[in-house]
Design a protein that fits this description.
The complex is a heterodimer of chains A (about 140) and B (about 500).
Chain A lengths: L2 H8 L6 H8 L4 H9 L3 H13 L5 H9 L4 H10 L5 H11 L5 H14 L2 H10 L3 H10 L3
Helix pairs in contact in A: 2-4, 3-4, 3-5, 4-5, 4-6, 5-6, 5-7, 6-8, 7-8, 8-10, 9-10
Chain B lengths: L1 E2 L3 E7 L7 E6 L2 E7 L4 E8 L3 E2 L3 E7 L7 E6 L2 E7 L4 E8 L3 E2 L3 E7 L7 E6 L2 E7 L4 E8 L3 E2 L3 E7 L7 E6 L2 E7 L4 E8 L3 E2 L3 E7 L7 E6 L2 E7 L4 E8 L3 E2 L3 E7 L7 E6 L2 E7 L4 E8 L3 E2 L3 E7 L7 E6 L2 E7 L4 E8 L2 E9 L8 H13 L3 E10 L7 E3 L10 H7 L10 E5 L2 E3 L4 E2 L8 E4 L7 H9 L29 H8 L6
Parallel strand pairs in B: 36-37, 36-39, 38-40, 39-42
Antiparallel strand pairs in B: 1-35, 2-35, 3-4, 4-5, 5-6, 5-7, 8-9, 9-10, 10-11, 10-12, 13-14, 14-15, 15-16, 15-17, 18-19, 19-20, 20-21, 20-22, 23-24, 24-25, 25-26, 25-27, 28-29, 29-30, 30-31, 30-32, 33-34, 34-35, 41-42
Helix pairs in contact in B: 1-3
Classes of the chains: A mainly alpha (about 140), B mainly beta (about 500).
């Protein structure tokens, strides 16, 4: 999809992400990366999440870019998007987001980490996170 | 309940303080009458099907500047007008749907001071009774009957009042008239006529007093009850009542209200248990209060920022029990109107996890109120509460499909402090998973929606619209447009009648 077409599709109040991912396809990854880089949080957050749903080589790169955004809403989207990436691509991004100063972003990352089976990361949060609710969340998501 | 903004009626103008007379021949039609700035008598009309017409002169009639025009509709297709002309004669004309406007004629040789009000009442469709203070200060009456035409003027029970004093007449039933006037000594007098006994003697009403010439307003909410209103000698607004069971009550000050001497208090009974009062206050602003049988008197409030010259009368008509139309000559001499329409209410409880960053929460609420008002729905923010729930601030909403909610949504929506079962809770979160501007999915009968920090000013109303049963639509100038409310064209966005009907039928709207 072209850049403006993607921007328009993402600028809805409610989106059907699976349908949009299928329509956009791997060839849209570069445009999604451009939308994340544009620094408009309402579009960038959606672009990052959509990129993770598309099985493409550059998907993790887009999510990683979002994870470094100055906008917490974009980083929160990256934290949620992690769960759709392959484990090996998600792990380094998760490590960064698990040290995010925002408790909500760390909590959302914990949920993604749990879904990816990154047990070491989960254990570390359960042991060391500053916020008791995040520690409790991680502990509760530990297997067994 | 909603008041509209004041608007100028078809460019009409009159001298400051001029009364604007209004009558509703039927619920979807208004006729207005006023003495214009050139002394000509003018009329316009409003019809629900065509809106406001242009002003036109009524059969060449003329009167002194500020003269009141009295109008009565004996039936829905007939109007009778009365005025004191420039020569002091009491004149009348009529309009009939079949024949249009007639020429003015002097009523039985009657005369009164320039600018006097000619009071008229139609006890039945074939009979009119007129009352006026004559040039000799006597209180005079005449009548017209379809069978016999106009009678001669006669003095009513020897009554007298200051030159130009308005007489108030009311027919509680077709065989009974009650009259009220401020007498030559400033005492408030009444008399009555009954078909069985004729005219009674004048008597003072509960010791009431007013400035010479002060108008007495009377209304019969039911055939056995009268309510009177007057601006007293101390400038305070007073009322008393008469009930067939208990007689006359003492005068009392209405909710602390005050007005310039001789200010007319206009009153309307939208139903037998409710009164609405209108007056120009001592600061020149237009005020209203109400009385309801269930709650008593309300406090005075300024009507939509309206203002008029001191003592300007505000004419009011209730075309329907849930609708009022007001008319006044404003401070710039232009004729203004506003209306009130009773609306339904949607009580919204705002729950804040994160404040919006794209527009302010206040802008979102105001935008929702503006759009919903077009559907006759007043959005009230009944409570606002901050929620410290960081683990729900980026809320998993799953597919955000109607009737399906996630564990996180259910946890969040359990926070309904202050909210009744049929109230709507709107939760402001930072983001959703997946990222959306908002989501209206909610458990059955738990009325809730989520709005995120990147939402547009219309998203709150949009998501609430989903809760109220509205689906997405394609046109980009509608609130429920599916292409994203950031991209709404021609704001404020519209609701169509079918959408309004759906919203009004929802249990949260009541």
């Amino acid at each position: 999809m072209e850049l403006d077409e993607l921007r328009k599709a993402l600028d809805r109040d409610e989106l059907n992400y699976p349908a949009l991912a299928a329509r956009a396809g791997p060839e849209s990854i570069e445009n999604l990366e451009a939308l994340v880089a544009e620094d408009e949080p309402r579009i960038a957050s959606k672009a990052a999440y959509l990129a993770a749903l598309i099985d493409a080589a550059g998907s993790a790169r887009v999510v990683d870019l979002a994870a470094q955004s100055r906008h917490d809403v974009v980083r929160a989207s990256a934290a949620a998007a992690l769960g759709s990436l392959p484990q090996e691509h998600a792990a380094p991004i998760a490590d960064r987001l698990l040290t995010d100063p925002d408790v909500g972003i760390r909590a959302r990352t914990v949920r993604s980490v749990a879904s990816l089976g990154l047990q070491d990361s989960l254990q570390k949060v359960a042991d060391e996170d500053d916020h008791p609710e995040v520690r409790a969340l991680a502990a509760g998501l530990m297997p067994g | 309940m909603g008041w509209a903004s004041w608007f100028n009626v078809s460019g009409g103008r009159a001298a400051l303080g001029s009364p604007v007379s209004v009558i509703a021949r039927n619920p979807d039609h208004l006729d207005l009458f006023v003495t214009g700035t050139d002394g000509g008598i003018y009329s316009t009309w409003w019809d629900a099907s065509s809106g406001w017409a242009s002003w036109f002169p009524v059969s060449g009639g003329r009167a002194a500047l500020g003269s009141p025009i009295t109008v009565v509709a004996r039936n829905p297709n007939h109007l009778d007008l009365f005025v004191v002309g420039t020569d002091g004669g009491v004149y009348s004309t009529w309009w009939d749907a079949a024949s249009g406007w007639a020429s003015w004629f002097q009523v039985s040789g009657g005369r009164a001071a320039l600018g006097s009000r000619v009071e008229v009442v139609a006890r039945n469709p074939d009979h009119l009774d007129l009352f006026v203070t004559g040039t000799d200060c006597g209180i005079y009456s005449t009548w017209w009957d379809a069978a016999s035409g106009w009678a001669s003027w006669f003095q009513v029970s020897g009554g007298r009042a200051a030159l130009g004093s308005p007489i108030t007449a009311i027919a509680r039933n077709p065989n009974h008239l009650d009259l009220f006037v401020t007498g030559t000594d400033g005492r408030i007098f009444s008399t009555w006529w009954d078909a069985a006994s004729g005219w009674a003697s004048w008597f003072q009403v509960s010791g009431g007093r007013a400035h010479l010439g002060a108008p007495i307003t009377a209304i019969a909410r039911n055939p056995n009850h009268l309510d009177l209103f007057v601006t007293g000698t101390d400038g305070r607004i007073y009322s008393t009542w008469w009930d067939a069971a208990s007689g006359w009550a003492s005068w009392f000050n209405v909710a602390g209200g005050a007005a310039a001497p001789r200010s007319r208090i206009n009153v309307v009974a939208r139903n037998p248990n409710h009164l609405d009062l209108f007056v120009t206050g001592t600061d020149g602003r237009i005020y209203s209060t109400w009385w309801d049988a269930a709650s008593g008197w309300g406090t005075w409030f300024n009507v939509s920022g309206g203002a008029a010259a001191l003592a300007s009368p505000i004419d009011v008509v209730a075309r329907y029990p849930d609708h009022l139309d007001l008319f006044v000559t404003g401070t710039d001499g232009r004729i203004y109107s506003t209306w009130w329409h009773q609306t339904e209410a949607l009580r919204v409880h705002v729950k804040i996890l994160s404040e919006p960053t794209s527009v302010t929460r206040a802008q979102m609420v105001q935008s929702m109120q503006d759009v919903y008002r077009t559907a006759g729905i007043d959005v009230f923010v009944a409570s606002t509460e901050s929620l410290d729930l960081p683990l729900l601030n980026d809320l998993d909403v799953g597919g955000c499909t109607a009737g399906s909610t996630t564990t996180e949504q259910n946890q969040l929506f359990a926070n309904r402090n202050n909210a009744a079962a049929d109230d709507l809770c709107v939760y402001f979160v930072r983001s959703t998973v997946p990222p959306l501007n908002g989501c209206a999915a909610h458990p059955n009968n738990v009325w809730a929606a989520v709005v995120t920090s990147v939402a547009s000013r219309w998203t709150m109303g949009h998501e609430s619209g989903h809760v109220l049963g509205l689906p997405h639509v394609a046109p980009t100038d509608r609130l429920m447009m599916g292409g994203g409310t950031w991209n709404i064209t021609n704001p404020p966005p519209d609701l169509i009648q079918a959408e309004m009907d759906t919203m009004l039928a929802h249990p949260t709207v009541r």
